Amino acid sequence: MSFFPQVAQCKWRVLKVSAAVAQQEAAATAQVEESLVEEEEKEGEVGAEGEAWYQAENEAEAESPVNTKLYFGNLPYNVDSAQLAGIIQDYGSPELVEVLYNRENEKSRGFAFVTISTTEDCNAVIENLDGSEYLGRSLRVNFSDKPRPREPLYPETEYKLFVGNLSWSVTSESLSQAFQEYGNIVGARVLYDGETGRSQGYGFVSYSTKSAMEAALQSLNGVELEGRAMRRCMLRFHSK
Q1: Are 74 and 44 in contact (CB under 8 A)?
Q2: What residues have CB less than 8 Å from 139, skipping those under 6 apart?
Q3: Distances (CA, A) of 181 to 87, 174, 219
Q4: What confidence score (pLDDT) does residue 56 get?
Q5: Is 155 left (phi over 0), alpha (psi -120 to 50) or beta?
Q6: Pick from 11, 14, 54, 44: nearest CA to 147
Q7: In what order do the strands lie in the sheet with 69-73?
Q8: Residue 109's closest CA among 152, 69, 79, 66?
Q9: What is the pLDDT along the chain (240 residues), one digit of tens a residue?
Q10: For residues 92, 97, 101 and 107, what is the CA-based torsion angle, rounded to 10 degrees?
Q11: Three-state DSSP class for 187?
């Protein structure tokens, strides 16, 4: 019996397995990117809905000379009024906290209005909480009668990396710290479940230059971060 046919058959099986693994990884990556697009579209819808509430609130309070009501946007969907009051009270005295809910399914709409005791407290709350990360989301906080121009919640560039197999304890901040030695980071985010607030185990890092992105891709593939080896960093170009 010849040995060479067995070797050829073995190589053919290895090639088939490798192709199958590659196909599975490609399908998994496509699914992740699709879920990310859906989440970004959902965030856009919530932002537009919040702006509509701005107009209604402003018309109702047009006669008030002093405004001490704040708008909180991009809230995690599992945060209720009591939790929101808890994170505010370190910087001001909340008098009324109103998280808006969907009447049909009683789920949070992802934004709220909070009445604070004084304008000084309002400014302190905005200074400390606007742009801060809470349960995986970057909060938007400003006076309800002074809506800000719509800006991207998570800055990105075309030099963007997908980072998988992240430890559940990794945050957007720690992810940024792990990658920052390879170049200027424009934005880094870990994806979280909107209902539970738990990490989904993957994230994205955007660099300002292609060389920085490639350096991180080569150096950090398989490196352990907070107890887990990052599966690999897959290039994902973001077209604008």
Answers
A1: no
A2: 72, 73, 74, 75, 129, 130, 131, 132, 133
A3: 32, 12, 11
A4: 53
A5: beta
A6: 54
A7: 94-101, 108-116, 69-73, 140-143
A8: 79
A9: 544 444 444 444 434 434 443 454 445 455 555 554 455 545 555 555 555 555 555 554 444 557 899 999 989 888 999 999 999 999 999 999 999 998 888 888 899 999 999 999 999 999 999 988 888 788 999 998 876 555 555 677 888 888 888 988 888 888 989 999 999 998 888 888 766 778 888 888 999 999 998 888 888 878 888 888 887 665 544 444
A10: 60
A11: strand
Question: What amino acid occupies position 43?
Answer: E
Q: What are the structure tokens assigned to 125, written together?
A: 């709350």
**The two three-digit tokens of residue 122, written as one number:** 């309002």
CA-nearest of 201, 203, 204 to 160 is 204
pLDDT number for residue 229:
85
Spatial separation of the C-alpha atoms in residues 160 and 205, rounded to whole Å:
6
Q: Which residue has the tokens 């593939």?
A: 221
Closest-CA residue to 70 (of 87, 49, 90, 94): 94
DSSP code for 237? -
DSSP alpha helix (H) spans, the chain: 4-60, 81-88, 119-129, 172-179, 210-220
Q: What are phi and psi of 235, to 5 degrees?
A: -70, 135
Asked whether 217 and 161 are in contact (CB, 8 A), the reply is yes
Q: What one-letter code names the amino acid at 70?
A: L
Q: Tokens representing 74?
A: 């991009």
Prediction pTM value: 0.49
